[in-house]
Amino acid sequence: MNNRRNHNCSAVVAAVTAACPAIAGDTPASTEPIRHLYLHIPFCARICPYCAFYKDLLDRSQTERFCEAILRELEQHTQDRHLLPSTIYFGGGTPTALTTSQLELLLKGFHERLDLSTLTEWTVEANPGSVSARKAALLRELGVNRISLGVQSWDEELLKILGREHNAPQAEKSFSILRAAGFSNINVDLMFGLPGQTTPQWRSTLEKTISLQPEHISAYCLTYEEDTEFFLRQARGELHADPDVDAQLFEMTISILQDAGYEHYEISNYARPGFSSAHNSAYWAGDDYLGIGPSAFSTRGSQRWQNVSDYRAYADRISSGESAISTTEQLTSEMKRAERIALSLRTRQGISTALVQDRYAAAEEFISLGLLRQAEGNFVLTPAGKCVADSVAEALL
User: Fold this and answer.
1) Same domain, yes or no: 340 and 268
2) 109 closest CA partner among 157, 62, 51, 64
3) What pLDDT does residue 49 have?
4) Which of 4, 28, 178, 244 has its CA 20 to 30 A from that of 149?
């Protein structure tokens, strides 16, 4: 299992692609419009000790300039790329850490610069500590129709361990504010496998979440990632992961949420029928996407690039008329195949058997072990296989 948030798919498969050799037969550049946009807003009121995404403490003196740079970068892309988004995702960081007027500037700027006639899903990540009725009303008024609320836990002690700036009552109030503003598609982000977390605590968090009746629930298992405080504490022996306990909590999550009517459509994601994340599903399917903002990744055909991971340097470059791109990568057909296996196997559709023709013996062995099954020409993880999804995917590469 992997607790990487799904909009950062390049991070999910970095280890996979690093192991793939460059070969001939690269995918030609696509002439189709880019239909999936991601915007990274790195500001946080507090730095969480488990988060490995690029982020920085909120500096009100810099946010206006940052927003202007975002819109200028978007303009750069509209000049040389065909953008016709069906999904937009504002992630972070904490997008709602921006002021109401700054959010309005960005949202209106996207409306002015893009053809949104085919837009079906516009998601904004929100922190319970920075949700207000005014912000919620503005987001809804300007076309946002999906919110991802970073609750993580309903247990006060665990929230403190995670370094979250909100408490449980604030999270519940934020959910109510979003409902009152007219949002009928809300995701609640949760985490398990936390230091000191008990089975009753996790069960209580799941039950509390279900009682609110969100349309979507993301439940990620904590991993100790480099460049985080938790990773350093684990290296010092202060924190310990227990894979067996994590597996038990994962199995319990599947059982409880499915019994409550949520479809388990990806390893870490559960949705009411019709409410799967269209944006994240595009990543898992290997579609092209454009990332805007500091540290954001983009993939277009066989090309992948990443913007500079420093919002000040990012704004300097954009304001000077320069590109924000810091690194580029040429994806081979083998690298794209490996990514497709690593990401698609995590979904309920699984992977086409044709993708792993040269690993068919391994696939058959997983079937005999009860970790894979065949369905409609695809290999699909069984409930037992979901607990070891990354290991299965690695063996099929």
Assistant:
1) no
2) 64
3) 80
4) 244
Give the Cα separation of 224 and 141 in Å (integer): 39
Place of tokens 């009725």: 133
| Residues 127 and 202 placed together within one structural domain of the fold | yes
Q: What is the DSSP letter of 143?
A: T
Give φ, ψ of 235 to 5 degrees.
-60, -30
Do 116 and 182 belong together in one domain?
yes
> Cα 324 from chain centroid?
22
What is the mean pLDDT for each group of 10 consecutive residues in the chain (397 residues)? Answer: 37 41 39 94 84 80 93 93 96 94 97 97 95 98 98 95 91 98 98 94 97 98 85 84 92 97 97 98 96 97 96 96 96 93 94 90 93 93 92 91
326, 314 in Cβ contact below 8 A?
no
Q: What is the pLDDT of residue 5?
A: 42
Buried b (16+ CB within 10 A) or exposed e, 18-31: eebeeeeebeeeee
Closest CA to 343 of 274, 277, 286, 264: 286
Dig out the tokens for 4 from the structure.
């990487």
**Per the structure, how many domains does the chain have?**
2
- DSSP letter at 194 equals -
Helices (H), ranges, the chain: 9-12, 14-18, 60-80, 100-113, 133-141, 156-161, 168-180, 199-212, 229-235, 243-259, 278-284, 311-319, 333-344, 360-368, 383-386, 389-396
Task: Kindly state the tokens that stand for 358.
Answer: 């040269």
**C-alpha span between 62 and 33 (Å, rounded):** 33
- 303-307/325-330 β-pairing: antiparallel
142 and 200 co-located in one domain: yes
297 occurs within a structural domain: no
Say whether both 67 and 175 belong to one domain: yes
CA 103, 107, 108 angle in degrees (round to 5)?
Answer: 115
Residue burial 123-161, b: 16+ Cβ < 10 Å; e: rest? bbbbbbbbbeeebbebbbeeebbbbbbbbbbbbeebbeb
Domain interval for residue 115: 27-284
**Per the domain annotation, does 174 fall within a domain?**
yes
- Considering the domain architecture, whether residues 277 and 349 belong to the same structural domain is answered as no
d(Cα 386, Cα 250) in Å, to the nearest integer?
Answer: 9
